[in-house]
Amino acid sequence: MKLSTKGRYGLKAMFELALHYGKGPIPLKNIADSQRISEHYLEQLIATLRKNGLVNSVRGAQGGYMLSEKPDNITVGQIIRVLEGSIAPSDCVADDEDLTCNREKQCVTKIVWEKIRDSINEVIDSITLQDMVDDHERLNNDRGYMYYI
Amino acid sequence: MKLSTKGRYGLKAMFELALHYGKGPIPLKNIADSQRISEHYLEQLIATLRKNGLVNSVRGAQGGYMLSEKPDNITVGQIIRVLEGSIAPSDCVADDEDLTCNREKQCVTKIVWEKIRDSINEVIDSITLQDMVDDHERLNNDRGYMYYI
DNA sequence: TGAAAACCAACTATTTTAGTAGGGATTGTA
DNA sequence: TACAATCCCTACTAAAATAGTTGGTTTTCA
User: How close is the nearest chain A Cα to the Cα of B61, in Å?
Assistant: First the structure.
């Protein structure tokens, strides 16, 4: 039940973009450096995010990436689903696919998987990038200094 | 975020044992047949369940497996954790291990993983095998016949 | 014009998954 | 007592997924 690095790195990258929202394009190298992620690998992840409309890019020198929307309008759920596919503990409850098994009418484990799926979705759809930025500022205030100087 | 077949098959097997609770040992072959699982593979999974005290075994002819406790005293959470390890979307929030990362004080993605972990645990710890048996009987009643004849 | 950056496709090492193979040990029943 | 049914155990393995790496091309600002 672990997320792959796709979802984990992807969320970190998006959070980093949220921290710098409104300040123009951020080059991938900066994101990779601050989050300690292989730049070239992150490139693949952010390409997926871009193709799914969650980030915009600016090419050429002084280019980079930025969120396509305000941080309070992008949820963790959107990011994770784009990178990992539908969140489901079993294929039979993956809502984007039609992988129904032939025993689903009698299957009670399916009910369990549905409950798990729904509870995860509820959590990740309720957290926005803005929430994470707020958490981050709170964490830093508690430690006696501000992130933005 | 998918469970492996360990957790999925394991829960199916435990459910099967719950259906026959109190009727003496059930041979692995029966479980494997009714749930369409490779018998030899299931053997490995049930060995884990036995070593962790969730099932008892009876060796020799007419032997088999049975739940170590009443179905309402075994949760889905116990079964899944034994077979899959600690439920955590990221190692940094796996409660059985000490895989804390050095950035955890500043890390806001960790907060997200904790919320996901907690919500999954809440769901799986609240469902017992007896709940699944009840669901199963309800499903079969709705279809106009009883499971036990 | 050159450096900084995004963009793209293919390759690869490692790990995990989902089993299989091949036996040994125990025990109820004929 | 033989034997079939059953649990028990270790090791091996094919296939898939993961987590990158390699080696470029294209665009654009200064």
Answer: 30
**Sign of the CA dihedral B112, B113, B116, B122?**
negative
CB contact under 8 A, A139 and B108: yes
Q: How far apart are CA B111 and CA B109, in angstroms?
A: 5
Low-confidence ranges of chain A (pLDDT < 70): 96-99, 142-149
Q: Within 13 Å and on the Cβ side, how many CA atoms surround B96?
A: 7
pLDDT score, position B37: 96
Q: Which H or E run contains A124?
A: helix A109-126
Report angle CA B56, B76, B4 to the nearest 5 degrees: 95
Q: What DSSP designation does B144 have?
A: T
Report the half-sphere exposure of A111 (CA within 13 A, side-chain side).
17
Q: Which residue of B has its CA nearest to A115?
A: B123
Q: What is the pLDDT of residues B6-51, one digit of tens each?
A: 999 999 999 999 999 999 999 999 999 999 999 999 999 999 999 9
